[in-house]
Amino acid sequence: QVQLVESGGGLVQAGDSLRLACAASGRTFTMYGMGWFRQAPGKEREFVAVISRGGGNTYYADSVKGRFTISRDNAKNTVYLQMNSLKPEDTAVYYCAARRTPGYGDYDSKVGYDYWGQGTQVTVSS
C-alpha cells in the first residue's frame, strides 16, 4: 500500500512555469513506476507522463512533450512534474499515480495504475 499526496498547484498566467510534487508514503517507493494524469472539467482523466522505477525512462503525452518534465527523487520518495510554457488548455486537476506492474503495459491508461493521490488544481489564465 502506498499513499500519495500532491502539492504545488495554483493559478498562473500563460507562459509561466509551475512544479508539482507528489510525496509517497512507505519504504517501497522504488517498486513503483510513477505517473501524472490530469482531468479538466467535463473531460476524461488523461495521461500526462510516466517515469520508471529507477528514473531512467520517461514517456509523455504528445500535448506536453517538450514543455513538461517528469523526474523522481527516490531518496525523498517524491516524484515531480516540471511544467513550462503553460497554456490555458493545461488547466486541470493533476493527479499523481503509482503502478506496481513492471514494464510499460497500459502506462498511458488509468487501468495501469494502482494508487492515486487526491489531486492538485492547476489553472492557467490567458
Largest sheet: 7 strands, mixed
Q: In total, how many beta strands?
A: 11
Roughly how much helix do the residues carry, as a percent range? under 10%
Helix and strand content put the structural class at: mainly beta
Order of helices and strands: EEEEEEEEEEE
Mean pLDDT: 95
Ends distance: 40 Å
Q: What is the radius of gyration?
A: 13 Å
Number of helices: 0
Low-pLDDT ranges: none
Shape: globular
Relative strand content = over 45%
Primary descriptors:
4-stranded antiparallel β-sheet; 0% helix; mainly beta; globular; single chain; 126 residues; 7-stranded mixed β-sheet
Describe, in plain words, how this protein is organized in 3D:
The chain is an all-beta fold and about 130 residues long. The protein is about 0% helix and about 45% strand. β5 and β6 form a beta hairpin. It is globular. It starts with a strand and ends with a strand.
Gist of the model:
The protein has 126 residues and is mainly beta. Helix content is 0%, strand content 47%.
Write the layout of secondary structure elements.
Blueprint: E1 4-7, E2 10-13, E3 18-24, E4 33-39, E5 46-51, E6 58-60, E7 68-73, E8 78-83, E9 92-99, E10 115-116, E11 120-125
Parallel strand pairs: 2-11
Antiparallel strand pairs: 1-3, 3-8, 4-5, 4-9, 5-6, 7-8, 9-10, 9-11
